[in-house]
């Protein structure tokens, strides 16, 4: 009985801790889309599966133990101690989460599974209806909630695929999220 109670407490604690690190809404992403001038009436595609936090963390860090890049870019906003806190908070979250239309009520997005992207069937379906494709991660807080960081990769439904892999760093000013910096992935650029 005691073991079951401990197990239940562990499960409840994990749900609560995950919930505390997530935003209640995605206003920062909406503000980013607006700042980019992305037309909310024009149809675009969002990949259902949210990008992994570790990917955004890797780009923000400016490298990893696997890559042999010696000329990695690291933003001046990077601080080792603050990054370690952010990494500890968000890197263990490996549960696959999905975007849904309720997350972007003001945009004309269609949602596509990652599996099946840029296959023959995919090209046949979108050959005459090319559109932008967005891969977006869950926003993460940085430096005591002063900044929000998320991955926003872009491509098109045509044969070019992913064209830009980046993280967006934003801060809130007067109830609106503003872009502070865009950091491009050192592997793809």
What does this structure look like?
Strands 1, 2, 3, 4, 5, 6, 7 and 8 form an eight-stranded mixed β-sheet that branches. The radius of gyration is 18 Å and the shape is globular. The protein has one domain. It is of the alpha+beta class. Helix 3 (53-61) runs antiparallel to helix 4 (80-90). Helix content is 30%, strand content 24%.
Supply database-style keywords.
189 residues, eight-stranded mixed β-sheet
Give the topology.
Blueprint: H1 2-21, H2 27-35, E1 44-47, H3 53-61, H4 80-90, E2 109-112, H5 120-126, E3 132-136, E4 140-142, E5 147-156, E6 162-164, E7 166-173, E8 176-184
Parallel strand pairs: 1-2, 1-3
Antiparallel strand pairs: 3-5, 4-5, 5-6, 5-7, 7-8
Helix pairs in contact: 3-4
- E-strand count: 8
Largest sheet: 8 strands, mixed
Spell out the helices and strands N to C.
HHEHHEHEEEEEE
Alpha plus pi helix count: 5
Task: Give a quick rundown of the structure.
α3 packs antiparallel against α4. By secondary structure, the protein is α+β, with helices and mostly antiparallel strands. The chain has helices at 2-21, 27-35, 53-61, 80-90, 120-126; strands at 44-47, 109-112, 132-136, 140-142, 147-156, 162-164, 166-173, 176-184.
């Amino acid at each position: 009985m005691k073991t079951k109670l401990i197990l239940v407490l562990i499960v409840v604690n994990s749900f609560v801790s995950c919930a505390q690190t997530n935003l209640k809404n995605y206003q920062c992403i909406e503000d980013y889309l607006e700042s980019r001038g992305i037309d909310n009436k024009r149809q675009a595609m969002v990949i259902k599966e949210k990008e992994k936090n570790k990917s955004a963390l890797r780009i923000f860090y400016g490298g990893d133990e696997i890559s042999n890049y010696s000329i990695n870019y690291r933003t001046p906003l990077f601080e080792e101690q603050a990054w370690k806190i952010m990494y500890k908070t968000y890197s263990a979250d490996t549960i696959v989460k999905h975007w849904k239309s309720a997350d972007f009520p003001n945009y004309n997005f269609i949602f596509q599974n990652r599996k099946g992207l840029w296959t023959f069937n995919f090209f046949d379906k979108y050959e005459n209806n090319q559109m932008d494709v967005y891969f977006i991660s869950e926003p993460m807080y940085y430096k005591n909630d002063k900044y929000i960081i998320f991955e926003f990769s872009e491509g098109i439904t045509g044969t070019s695929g992913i064209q830009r892999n980046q993280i967006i760093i934003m801060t809130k000013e007067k109830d609106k999220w503003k872009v502070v910096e865009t950091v491009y992935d050192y592997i793809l650029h």
